[in-house]
Design brief:
The chain contains 4 helices and 2 strands; from the N terminus they run ααααββ. Helix 2 crosses helix 4. The protein starts with about 25 loop residues before the first helix and ends in a 15-residue tail after the last strand. Helix content is about 35%, strand content about 10%. Strands 1-2 form a two-stranded antiparallel sheet. By secondary structure, it is of the alpha+beta class. This is Helix-turn-helix transcriptional regulator. One of its GO terms (molecular function) is DNA binding.
């Protein structure tokens, strides 16, 4: 959604800030939505699997801003959208951009 001022809004109508770093939960959710493993994300982002695993397990180690940007960009390149707002709402959505893998949940027949 977009408000009168042209700002993007989340599902409950609050402004979103799409320049924040993604959270570990958003990263896990995004991968699940596009059916990517940590290895898939590592290949697309150039970030190592152990670094992604530690981030997603919410270890105390802070990732560099560039690393977080690379993870986010790799996911966004697959149609993932992240949203944040002032009330603390965080969201993840996806518009699939490729159908390279068959849908395992599709009905046959």
């Amino acid at each position: 959604m977009i408000n009168v001022a042209g700002s993007r809004l989340n599902a409950i109508g609050n402004p979103v800030d799409n320049h924040k770093n993604i959270t570990p939960a958003q990263c896990r959710a995004a991968r699940a939505l596009i059916r990517w493993s940590q290895t898939d994300l590592a290949k697309a982002s150039g970030i190592s699997v152990p670094t992604i695993a530690e981030f997603e397990r919410e270890m105390d180690r802070q990732l560099q801003p560039r690393t977080l940007r690379d993870l986010r960009k790799a996911l966004e390149d697959q149609g993932v959208s992240f949203s944040f707002d002032e009330s603390g709402f965080i969201g993840v959505g996806v518009i699939p951009r490729s159908t390279s893998a068959p849908d395992p949940y599709a009905r046959k027949g």
